[in-house]
Write a structure and sequence with these properties.
This protein has 14 helices and no strands. The protein is mostly helical and 363 residues long. It has one domain. Helix 6 crosses helix 9. It is globular. It starts with a helix and ends with a helix.
């Protein structure tokens, strides 16, 4: 009996070993196959549908980004035109600046109270952190409005093109941020272009130039203070749009006493009475309120547009925006501009683009 079992086992063993060898070889072959992600995907109806859906999503995202950029430019043009019209009729820039900031406050509260946008949650310490940034935001706006009231829209934006020069200087002093030599070289055409454009600018005023430079300094300080104080985030639900809304509310609170001191109610009343001799109250209110609405909307859409693109596209978008505003304002107000002014403007704006690109590439 034992002999029979032994013979049967001997006969079965050769059959088992080849099977095990075959399984082992198959395992080795499977292990040697490339990962699934590296294998070519077979074109099936399902994969073709997935590819089409992905392409459609990409197209929709591109269209959405393009729409944000178009609205950003459109609202910006609307703001500059209606702001200048309002300032021409009512030359009270501090009061106009206060009104423009205040227009955005009910808009933000409407979105929060209706639940269309999550309301921010801020502690007292969070608000204290945001106050210096809001003061930079306030200085940026006041400087720009005073400059626009003192001179042509095109001239204000030519001077505003020199903001990178101020930002680079303040970043080095306050943050110890030293950029690449190539980045600093791109500041030369900005300075030269602004100087060239200002030399023969027919609408040049020292008040317009100084106010625009104050706006540049305030804007650079706003960015630096935001980087220093808000690096770790502030509060809850503080999206980019909500950050802008909170800064607008704080800036509105701070500008009210400034506007009352610079332009007392009696002076404002006298200016309005004088304006009513040539314009209707409806027109004056319409221009002022539209300037405020466009101001808030263009800033909010700018956050949405620039948050969806890379730094290079961001730089190009900002440069094109300034060109569009200058051209639109020259057409709308028939602003006389010399050939030297055109050449200087082009050099300054091109230098701004070079600076942004160099900073993105070299630091």
């Amino acid at each position: 009996m034992i002999a029979v079992v032994t013979l049967a086992a001997s006969a079965f063993a050769p059959a088992v070993r080849p099977a095990l060898v075959q399984r082992s070889s198959a395992a080795v072959r499977v292990a040697q196959l490339p990962p699934v992600a590296q294998l070519p995907r077979m074109a099936t109806p399902l994969t073709m549908m997935a590819d089409a859906a992905e392409a459609e999503d990409g197209m929709m995202e591109t269209l959405k980004t393009a729409s944000f950029f178009a609205l950003w430019y459109l609202f910006n043009i609307g703001y500059n035109i209606y702001n200048k019209k309002a300032l021409n009729a009512l030359p009270i820039p501090y009061t106009q600046a206060a009104l423009q900031l205040a227009v955005g406050v009910p808009y933000a509260f409407f979105l929060w109270t209706t639940g269309l946008r999550k309301a921010p949650k801020l502690s007292a310490d969070n608000v204290k952190t945001l106050i210096p940034v809001s003061l930079g935001h306030l200085g940026t706006h006041i400087g720009a409005v005073v400059s626009l009231g003192a001179g042509a829209v095109s001239f204000t934006h030519i001077v505003k093109a020199s903001e990178p020069v101020v930002s680079a200087a303040l970043s080095a002093v306050m943050l110890g941020a030293i950029y690449h030599p190539v980045t600093y070289l791109t500041l030369l055409p900005i300075v030269g272009g602004v100087a060239l454009a200002s030399l023969k600018e027919l609408s040049f005023t020292w008040l317009g130039f100084i106010a625009a430079m104050i706006s540049n300094v305030s804007s650079a300080l706003r960015g630096i203070l935001a980087k220093k104080t808000m690096g770790g985030g502030v509060g809850e639900n503080m999206t980019e749009a909500n950050i802008y809304a909170v800064l607008t509310i704080l800036a509105t609170i701070f500008i009210l006493p400034i506007a009352l001191i610079m332009e007392p109610p009696a002076a404002v009343s006298a200016v309005i009475s004088s304006a009513l001799a040539t314009s209707t109250a409806k027109t004056l209110w319409a221009h002022s309120l539209l300037a405020g609405a466009f101001y808030y909307l263009y800033n909010e859409v700018a956050f949405l547009a620039l948050g969806r693109v890379n730094p290079v596209t961001h730089a190009i978008g900002n440069t094109v925006k300034r060109v569009v505003i200058i051209i639109a304002s020259v057409i709308a107000f028939k602003t006389p501009i010399s050939m030297l002014g055109i050449i200087g403007s082009a050099i300054a704006i091109f230098g701004t683009l070079l600076y942004s690109l160099a900073k993105s590439k070299f630091g």
